[in-house]
Amino acid sequence: MIDDDKRLAAEAAVAEIEDGMLVGLGSGSTAAFAIAAIGKRVSEGLEIDAVVTSLESGRLAARHGIELLDFEDVATVDLVIDGTDEIDPAFRAIKGAGGAMMREKIVANAAKRMVVVADGRKRVARLGGVPVPVEVLPFARSAVLGELRRLGAEPVLRRAGADPYLTDQDNIVFDCAFAALDMPDELAVALSTIPGVLAHGLFLREVDAAYIATGGRVDRLERH
Ligand code: 5RP
């Protein structure tokens, strides 16, 4: 059921893609449905360029026959289709449960349009039901931990088995729960200014539209 909704949302967003576009491929299980749908359209003749937001999405794109540009050589993306962990009515999102928030945000910032795809569980009245992932240089682990606590977070080091989870850039992640996420703009600025913090999962201005599927029905929401 949930997977059907993820696929429906992803396929609806993929319908936005036109020949000649440079498309950003997001990360996570819902974005994976989008990558599969894009691969199908490419096999049917769609001509696009594409970049990815994670190593895993790169592997997936290759499996679906989507040729990729190196994002290092790309300044502007036409459309990025990505997943989200939460999205509120103001199109503010929390991303990064998959750990790809740094590249996702860089690609989103380069994109003329960012569309998120999700099942209905991700639509929330208020942000804060999931922790905010914060990517940290390992060298700065203890120093950043103290700063995050001073901001009111309860940071938990993300693990992969017994070891710290490492991002595509070999950095660590603190998943930061907050008692209340009342002032996300102020929090985003505060997080960004901590030396050693390299990225965080608050996407407050990037999202232009959302395709959200619930019980087989897709809602397209557009930021005005
Ligand atoms: C990865 C992300 C994902 O897009 C987000 O976690 C949603 O993933 P899923 O579609 O699997 O629920 O931000 O960093």
What characteristics describe this protein?
Rossmann fold; binds ribulose-5-phosphate; alpha/beta; six-stranded mixed beta sheet; 224 residues; 6 helices; Alpha-Beta Plaits; four-stranded antiparallel beta sheet; 15 strands; 2 domains
Could you give a short description of this structure?
29% of the residues lie in helices and 29% in strands.
**Low-confidence parts:** none
Strand order of the largest sheet: 2-1-3-6-14-15
Q: In total, how many domains does the architecture comprise? A: 2
Order of helices and strands: HEHEHEEEHEEHEEEEHEEEE
Report the biggest beta sheet as strand number plus sense, adding barrel if it closes. Answer: 6 strands, mixed
> How many strands?
15
**Cα-based radius of gyration, to the nearest Å:** 17 Å
The global form is: globular
The chain-level mean pLDDT equals: 98
Q: Can you identify the CATH class of the largest domain?
A: Alpha Beta
Distance separating the two termini? 31 Å
**Helix content estimate:** 25-40%
Q: Which architecture of the largest domain would the CATH scheme give at its second level? A: 3-Layer(aba) Sandwich
- Which small-molecule ligands are present, each listed once? ribulose-5-phosphate
Strand fraction band?
25-35%
Structural class: alpha/beta
Number of helices: 6
* CATH fold node name of the largest domain: Rossmann fold
